[in-house]
Amino acid sequence: MARIEKTVFISYRRTNVPWALAISQNLTHHGFDVFFDFTGLASGDFEGVILDNIHARAHFLVLLTPSALESCGEPGDWLRREIEEALDSKRNIVPLMLEGFEFDTRSIANQLTGKLANLRKYNAMTVPAEYFEAAMEKLRNNFLNVALDTVLQPASAVAVRAASKAKEAAAQAPLVPEEELTAQQWFERGFNAHLKNDLGEALQDYDRAIRLKSDFDLALYNRGLVRRAKADLDGAIEDLNRAIDLDPDFSEAINNRGITRYYKRDLQGAIRDFNKAILLRPDFGGASYNRGLARHYERDRQGASRDYNKAIRLGADFREVFYSRAEARQARGDLSGALTDFKRAIRVDPNYSEAIAKRTAVLQAIEKLDANSKRKSRRSRS
Fold this sequence. Notes:
- This protein is α/β, with parallel strands linked by helices.
- It folds into four domains: 170 residues, Toll/interleukin-1 receptor homology (TIR) domain (Rossmann fold, 3-Layer(aba) Sandwich); 70 residues, Tetratricopeptide repeat domain (Serine Threonine Protein Phosphatase 5, Tetratricopeptide repeat), CATH 1.25.40; 69 residues, Serine Threonine Protein Phosphatase 5, Tetratricopeptide repeat (Alpha Horseshoe); 53 residues.
- The strands form two sheets. The chain has a five-stranded parallel beta sheet, sandwiched between helices. It has a two-stranded antiparallel sheet with strand order 1-7.
- The longest helix is centred in the last third of the chain and has 29 residues.
C-alpha cells in the first residue's frame, strides 16, 4: 500500500531565502522533516549532501520567482541541477509560484529549456504573502498529503549531519515577518518591470522593498542599476555602496560600482573596484573585460589587451569583448589580429554596424600594405 511521506526538500535561489525560511518553519511546525541549505554548505561537501538529501526526501518544493530562473542557463547552475535531479529521481515536485511568476513570460520561458521544460507539466501552486498561512495549509493538505510509491534512498552520514545542522540553524532563526515577504514581492515586481525596461516602475517597486527592509542588499543593488540607467550616477554609487557595506563579498555590486565610476570618468576608482571583484572571483570574465576598458582609456593598451584575452579565455563571448580587443590590436599595428576579432564580433551580431565598418577599414589597410609591399618588391628586383 502506498504511504504518506512527510519529508521535504526546498530548492530556491538565494534571492528568495526569506520565502524558503518561512515555508520551512511552517512545515517543520506541522511535523514535516524539511531540508534546505539555509546556512550554506562547504564547497567540498555540497554536491553529495544536496543530491543525497533530494534522494532521501519524497517531496521537492521549488520556489519560482521572476528572478529565480535568471541564471539557469549558466553552466553548473545549482538550482537547475537540483530540479533536474528531482525530475530524474521522480520526486513529488511542487512548483511554488511566488510574486509575478508566470510560465508564459518570455524571459522565464527562455530559461525553461531541456529537462526544465517539464516543470510546466506539474500542478503548480501560487503563494501570496498576504495569504501565506492559508497557502501553507493548502500545500500541506492538498499537495503534500498524497500517497507515494517513491523509492527513498538512505542519505550518507555526511548528508545526514549536514541536514541536522541546517534544520537546527533554521529552527533557531526568528520567524519571518510578513513585511519581509511583502518586501520580497515588491522586489520581484521591480525585477519584472526592470526586465521590461520600465525603469520608473522598477524604481518605485525597489523603493517600496527597501522601505520595508532597509538591509535588502539585492534590492539596493538593483535600484543602483536602475538609477545608473536613468543617468543618476551619484544615486547609483550610493545604493551600490550600501549593498557592498551589507555584503563586502558582493562581487557583482563591486563590479557595477566600478562600471558606474568608469561612466563618471573616475578611472582609477573603477580599476580598484574591478581589481577587487576579480580578487573575489578570479573567474569573473566580465570584470576583466571592464578593467580592460578602463585601462584602454588610461592608455595602458598592453594591460587592456591582457584583460580582454583573459575575459575571452574565461568564456566571454559577447560582441563588445571581441570589438574591444580588435581595437586594441589595431592600435598596436596587429591588423591581422584586429581583422579576426572584428569578424568574431560580427559573427556574434551580424548587424553590428560599428564592427562591420571597422572590418572594412582594416581590410582596406591590409590591402594597401600588401600593394605597397608588392611595389617595393618589384622595385628592388629591378
